[in-house]
Amino acid sequence: MECDVGHIANPDLRTVAALARAQLNARRRGVRLRFRNPSPALMELIAFAGLEEVLPVVGRLSGEAEEREEPVGVEEEGEFADPAV
Questions:
Q1: Which runs of E-coded beta strand occur in the chain?
Q2: Contact, 7 vs 31, CB < 8 A?
Q3: In the beta sheet, which residues pair with residue 3?
Q4: The whole model's pTM is what?
Q5: pLDDT tens, the chain, 85 aa long
Q6: What angle do CA 10, 28, 24 make, to 5 degrees?
Q7: For the chain, which domains are there?
Q8: Helix (H, G, I), strand (E, B), or coil: what is residue 85?
């Protein structure tokens, strides 16, 4: 079942919690919700909460920021004389 969340103007973590509760209630009834047209802000909050697998997205609004790339070749420096912990 699809749920359009494109109308949510200013999402916060309470919004994400409400969507997660809706997903839980739907699954208890044998239905899986998919969320359509989330804003970039809602997508970021879902990712921040670690719920991308729980709150699947069907479509995205245009203007979404590009995914951030992981830094490459960044290593911490240390002394070889430092004892291992």
A1: 2-4, 34-36, 57-59
A2: no
A3: 35
A4: 0.66
A5: 899 999 998 999 999 999 999 999 999 999 999 999 999 999 999 999 999 999 998 876 544 444 444 444 455 555 556 565 5
A6: 25
A7: 2-59 (3.30.750.24)
A8: coil
